[in-house]
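Escalation from tier 1.

The customer reports that the assembly of five entities below gives different structure tokens on two consecutive runs. Tier 1 could not reproduce it. I'm attaching the input and our single run for tier 2 to review.
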Amino acid sequence: MHALRHLALALFLAMCAVSASAEELISDLPRNETLIVENPEGTIKNAGWFNIWAINAGGQSTGLHQLAMDTLWYLDPQHGLDGVWMNSLAAEKPIYNADFTEMTVKLRSGIYWSDGVEFTADDLVFTTELHMKTNGLRWSAPFQINVASVSAPDRNTVIFKLKKPNSRFHSLFTVRWGAIWIMPKHVFEKVADPLKFDFNKPVSLGAYVLHSYDPNGKWFIWQLRDDWQRTTLGRYGKPGPKYVAYVDPGPPDKRVIAQLNHELDIIHDTSAEGMFTLAKQSKTSRGWFKGFPYAHPDPTLPAVIFNLQNDTFKDRRVRWALALLIDIKAVSMASYRGAATISAIAIPPTGTHTESYHAPMEAWLRDFELDTGKRTIKPYDPNIGRQIAEMLRPSMGEQIPTSADDIARAFGRGWWKPDPAAASELLQAAGFTRRGNDWMTPDGKPFAVRLVVEGDLRPVMTRAGSMIAQQWRQFGIDAKTEVAQGTLPDRRQAGDFDAMISWSVETYGGHPDLSYFLDSWHSQFVAPPGKMQTPRNWQRWASPELDKIIEQIRSTGFDDPKSVDLGREFVKLAVREMPIIPLMAYNVFTVMDQTYWTGYPTAEGDPYTDPVPNWGNSRAMMVRLKPAK
Amino acid sequence: MSAPLAKVADAERVLDVANLRAYYQTWHFGVSRDVRAVDGVTLHVDRNEIYGLAGESSCGKSTLIRTIVRAIRPPLAVVEGSVRFDFGGRACDIYALDRARLAGIRWRHLSYILQGSMNVLNPVRRVRESFVDFAFRHIGKPMPQFLALVEDHLARLRLDPAVLGSFPHELSGGMRQRVTIALASVCRPDFIVADEPTTALDVVVQKDVLALLREVQRQIRSSMILVTHDIGVHANATDRLGVMYAGRLIEEGRTGEVIREPRHPYTAQLVTSLPRIGDIEPKQGLDGAPPSLAAPPPGCRFHPRCPLAMEMCRREHPPMVEVAAGHRVACWVKAPPGGMAAP
Amino acid sequence: MFTVLRDLLRYRTEFRFGAILTGFIAAFAALSLVSPYPPQDQFVVPPDLPPSWSYWFGTTSRGQDVFWQLTFAIRNTMLFGLSVAVLSRLVSIAIGMWSGYKGGIVDRLLMSVNDTFIVIPLFPLLVLFYFVLRDRMSWPLLALAMASLGWAYDARLIRAVALSLSSREFTQQCVFSGMRTREIVFQEHLPYVLPIVFYTTMNNMNWSIGLEVTLSVLGFTDIDTPTVGVMIYWANQHTALVAGVWWWVFFPVLFVMILFIGLFLLAISTNEYIDPRSRLARMGDVSG
Amino acid sequence: MSALLDIDRVGMTYVSGTLLARRVVRAVDDLSLRLEAGRPEIVAIIGESGSGKTTLARMILNLATPTDGVIRFRGTDVAKIRSNHARADFMRQVQPIFQNPFEAFNPLKRVDRYLFMSARRLADARGAEVDALADRALHQVGLSLAELRGRFPHELSGGQLQRAAIARALISAPKLIVADEPVSMVDASLRMSIVNLFRSLRDELHVSIVYITHDLATAYYISDRVLIMQRGRAVESGAAREVLANPQHPYSRLLKASVLSPEDAGKPTIAANT
Amino acid sequence: MQAYAIYALKRLAQFVLVVFIGINLAYLISHATPIDPVEQTVSAATSFGNASPEAILMMRASLRELYGLEGGAVSQYAAFWRRVLVGDFGPSLSAFPTPVSTLIGRALPWTVGLLSVSTCLAFALGNLLGGLAGYFRESRILKLAGIAAMAVHPIPYYIVAFVLLIVFGYLWPVLPISGGYRINTPWGWNAEFVLSVVTHAILPVASLVLVGVGGWFMGMRSLVSNIVSEDYVVYAELAGVSRGRILGAYVMRNALAPQVTGLAMSLGSIFNGAIITEQVFGYPGIGTLLIQAVHAGDYSLVIGIASVSIVAVSVAVLIIDLLYPLLDPRVKVA
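Tier 1 run:
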């Protein structure tokens, strides 16, 4: 009995001792010089691996590609430090010859690797040639397909001779999220097998070098280089944080707790509810938007992707009927609790796209007519964004913007009006019949749709999918979600689905060019049923009209204004055909804590970049962040 | 050693059991029952004698001695009566002792040889450690002397001192029982209780063990209760014999007398039914079964099986009546109170 | 069997409590039959409302009524536990009794395999199982998988009884009465094994429900079928605790704890009841 | 005369342990015994624990297979009886009586069940025959079906149970009964009625009995022949009274000397054997 | 000695059998997977980057060659066992080309540490309290302890860990709720590192102990209440041997042997608990690695972890079995 009492006492004392020592999160680093960022990759299995050129061998968003890597150009999804286009290692934009078979790059001088070796054209040539002669490196294939030869006439010039015309070859070296990073020749030329080399400790071309890391992969700390001026960020001034820690803070609720305790400066993503909690409970936390919907819309477009090789969905009237059964307001509530930015067209409503596409095409959308087989309807409802705002206003109050522009930016513009009657007509026109409450396909089987979702790997989209399935179900379609978790990529590639929530549209965000995804939608890449489909035309849509548009874009320059017109042609075609039902931007609840740092990019303050910290572009934040006190 | 022939004086009594009743009081899922395992037993044991307790299975003999040495735990409880020991002039009621005094008496004055030699020794301790656990504190000598003393004791009992280094399972059944006897006697106690010490032993070994038991008793001159169902053992090892039937003592007297001239019909049946080598007389068994102790018949508990049963037997329980010097019997027929009946 | 239940109910506090708790949970689960909402539908009620008179257990961030969701969850969870228990009982009775009755080489072989299943950590295997099936993982399949992994310990208990029964004289008596092996095993021996089966059923339910909850919470099951684990899973997805929607987690946890403690009490009280000494006492053997 | 049971130089070796450390136990060694058909007798096999007598009983009952030698029952090698039919046929003629009557019946089942089962399976009785057969057998042991019907083992005494067990064995009118220590667990007061029963089985039903015991006195009392075993070997055998009255082998003598007789009562002069 | 050798050989044979069956199960189950590791890698590598369809076709081909996925089922199985016997599970597919064994080697010490500490604590505490509670049946404190143990015991690990996390990480945030040690603490045998490892382990260990202790408690208590009526205990009590000695040397000592057998039998399920606990508390170790591997579709890593956990548990069981005769001298003849 005495033993018991002693034990209890000892436990209590241990608790007290422990609670005293549990205050500081990070040992030995001054908190006010350290930026703590969530690494969305979580715990890195293979923490000691920094060779980013080997596929998936180690972590990437550990700060490695944000802080230590560099390449020729950056294309910002938002406005950029000094414009959307940033010449990084390159001194100017790519120079193509007339038929796009040769690209010349002019490089900056005075850029040094962190071990003191100067960066030259040799590094770029080495990177190219190593990829060309080695199979299995991350970018071996694009080099081998595109490049005939590479040469460096002088230390600041590199000339790529291409195997065939390619007006977008430079995009390989242009950071959207990431790009081909340049290797340090002086390190890799000594390496026997670049696939088996861990590059630990990494030689950095960015403004930061590795300070320390957890062998268990929970955290990585980077330190500002003393010679930060000799990097491409140098010309924007001294980066604020002396140390940047990329940590795995655990599941969404732990991230919220960590930021409430000011132990996590940037949350990469959390649930909508977690975001609301932070907005309510922490005065210093803020999202991309100051108020609702907070989230940063990524230039990707979650959509209902049909498998167009599946007989049921071959008829555009069926696809349209399913679209008209979706109440996007409910989907927005279910997925993002209203914090979604909806889009009726196959372009993400983000970055500069709204000016290039959404706003100018509004009129066309209003006038767009759809033949249901019995009558012609105008399915577009331009007021849905506003309706969402109104729906939220009672509970969210003044956080909800009032001006039409702000509402459009935050919640999107219009979408398709739910119209079950029209949907019925469309289905009947397509040969579907109604038996009692249930719909039957033309060949008399129950109309069943299995909507594949990704489960907790993408909870928001899973939530959207559940809602859409529910709406279809209520109409009499046997619709159910199927959780694919990690097999989604396999099933997507294999075409093993009826319909799924995923995205096949991704763009630069800051640049109207659509070739980033659209080029791969050419029918030349559509696999026959049962064979593997290459990204990103998951819907396996083969359309001669589309092919024509794509071919025109291929022969148009990247910055040519004509490509925007071609993009609009694509949008119109996609609206008519509805190969995917566009839903909304992929909104990311990135939350920034201003207790220790200010100067984060925000929508209404300074939208100089996307705050989502696993994007390569997020390095731009370092030069704008200032200590709070 | 011969049994004392004269009636012993009260002063020489080591153990006095008076009207002892001990019941198993159980309550299981609504079925509540009293099993009257010992029901009004009076007996005494004199100094330097071996008192035998006979009876067939479930007659209460084991319960009786468990009660006598206060080795009871619920559901067994003493309902009535007393158990008094007298160790060299200090008389005491064993149920009136506190824990410490009881511990002081145990093994020093009162030791015990249990039934079932397999399990009485701690299987994970060597024999030596058992000796230390049981006897060391009573001997009051430093360890080396104590161990020497134990070895002497074993040697006197013609046991190899090497057994001290063994685990119980390494010894044969007979050897284990011998070790137990040595263990029980090492402190030269005044009183030893032996519960079925030879059951489950082969006849050859049984004889040796009994011889050892008597030898020990002779050497240390202690008193002893020996419980066994085997009349042959009683005949060869005990001085006085008590016979139990269904929780009661029904006959008691000097062993030779009881066996040769049993008075109680049950005792008579028990003794005469035993075949002997060389004897081919047809012998009859007894029909029926002993009564349930939870619901014993009224009157004499033997009456349902008794060939002599009469009306009285069915009504009232017969008292113990002395039919000869030191020979007491409880039977309305063979020993009616107030007069010596014919044998 | 009926008298056994009656006795236990009347005289064992633990059993009574266990029966009340389990009965309460079972009754609650039965309410799912009259739920006004289909289990999968979302936004049928306003989200995030705390417990009130109109929503006793509050509502979730998915616009579901916690009370009605929980009726489905508890029902599915209990059914799951029961199916695993029943299926694995079949295996453990078959293996245990066969091994115990046959003895010898059959026994040694079976028990080696059996011990293997006892020792192997099952969780990695179940995760592996999920890994293989992923989206095709449904709860009947999971129940099957767990049943095929979760019989070993109980088979050993049953085998121990069967082994001691097969060496008892009455078994030989049966043989020499002309009984066939099947009759001996199922008519003579099974009654001795049934109490263990009954007792282990409840333990096995606890075990399987515990694993199911764990797997679900980690997202390793079919998250479309509401179970207690799946409810907690969704609550976690919506960071319910930090968002202050504690009722979404509290009630499932509370109810599953009640279920666990109820089953556990049933198991231990039955265990005591079937303890041979206690049985003897009831059967009326006299110890003396 | 033909042999009912012919035990011909039988041996039984147990191997315990594993391949690497065999321990060989010779439970029965070179043992022969012959019971004639048509001359029912009681043969007592006497020995102490570990003498191999129970192993011998198991071999006779075909519950164990001898490692050497042959046991023939009416000329058939017992060990070769394998088929269900042959086994049933064997069991009709050879029946066991076990040591512990309380253990011989399933405590959860009614006692009459086993009698009925034997009647159906071994005596091929049907319908009312079953009851009649059971009742007849019970009468042979001094019981009746009326007494026993519907009773559970714990409602009966050891003596009654043992009689019921014997009655069950008798249902198929066997030629041979192997009784392994049938009275050692029975109270002394009940013992003789069982022992006497064996005698009457021999005399009235002409059943031969192999009576296995460690008790010299009952062996002397009922058996015609005895066989004394020590560590698996037969050390002495012959007519019961002769052998037991005047044993020749040292072990037999030791056994006899160790018997504690009530005769010695009042003269507690016990001395160790060694 | 020879008897012990036989015993040890038997145990060893059982060990080999367990490992053989276990690893085969893991292999069979995982090879039924529809997941193509190449597609997993391709989609991971292209999910953020810009790669043309042609480039991806090329990447697929070269990865297939790199991962060594060619060959028939039998030859793959044979090759698998050849490698496993030397402790090589091949390269991890989600951290290619790092060997699976390296990844496991890094994680294993954490799990082993967490498990051994919590198991020993739970075993010692549960048995001690259970022994006391079984022997001193009348003690009120011990009865309360019994009720507490009974209440916590049946609750699954996850729930217990989760509640602890809420209480000590959120409602009363006194303990770290994530990671194995404080960020940026240099590794080594220095006070700061050790202290931070200890504080980070408190909650995971506490959750495991809390759940584990009840089982040992109840097992010991019921064993003890049986053992106190064993002849040798009754005999020792009759001899007036002191209660402390009886409890220690007679009762607990004899109950320990079956409890240790129970420990060996339950190691597998204890291991399950560790995986969950690691997951809840973000603790480094095998469990965390396993979940990651599953999400990454890395089946060579999944098989590796399943196999290593089976081997680790079996080794622990083997060690306990081999030491068992020390506890119970009777076993030698078994």
